[in-house]
Amino acid sequence: MQDYIKRLLIAGLMALCVSLLFLGGKHSQAEMLDIPELTSDWIWPAEGVVSDVYGTRHGHHKGIDIASEFRTPIHTVADGVVTKSYYSGTYGHVVFIKHENNLETVYAHLNKRKVIEGQTVKQGDVIGEMGNTGDSSGVHLHFEIHKEKWTYDKENAVNPVIALGDAAIGQPVTALEKQEAYSLETIAKLRMADDIQIGSPEKQEKRESQETVKAPSSEVVESLKHVVRKGESLWSIAIKYQTSVDSLAQKNNIKDFRIAAGDILLINATEQDRYIVSAGDSLHSIAAKTKTSVEELKALNHLTTDVIQPQQILITR
Q: How far is CA 308 from CA 65, 182, 275, 277, 312, in A?
């Protein structure tokens, strides 16, 4: 009789544990399902190319990386209050922002912070500049989202694509916008097409032009005119003409880095001091191509190691 009671108790305890696990899983899943609604108006924090995603490095990478030019503006994804703004040995210059929906965002490896703790910020405000500080292998923004608050072990981390939209490594993203998801094939065509015009994935896949983008020859004219098309950004136009976002903004007197379809931009055709890193490139091979040295490249681009990433833009002189 005692054995029978023991078996019943053991079975009951096992059933209780399974139920708790099930309820816990359902609760976590429900929280994840709420996040897209809570962040439906959020925007991408920086212009650039996705260089790493959530969950890589054996699951230790708890954010998404966006690579771009040194000092690219970093924007807050939504209204909030700055909870931390300091220098960390791992994050470098980093800013933490708490939002009204009880989510906290992290912006790391900045070159410069432009906000202080306790400051109220509005969506799209520039809170810093992209850099390569802390434990970083190249100029990029490391962006994280946490439920309630950031913790040392990052137990509250949420995959940023749940809030911002799907993104793959190598995919270009536009600051101040909600990103549309594209297939890897479409991304490849966006990189190769001479006439960049982002439409729906279905329309883009039907485009026949796949000529490699080339920088305009400096022998043709001293200045070119470019008519902005729907979906283009200063970043994509800078890549097309082998120039920089800062140069385009300065040349066209653009203060907030925003452009619209139909705008006409002046572009310096003689500007040839930028190099876009391709797969297989190294600092040594780039130094040979651009007739400079590895030391000069590292100094010009504020690199602390020889590690570079595809689609990263390097200043060469």
A: 13, 25, 12, 8, 7
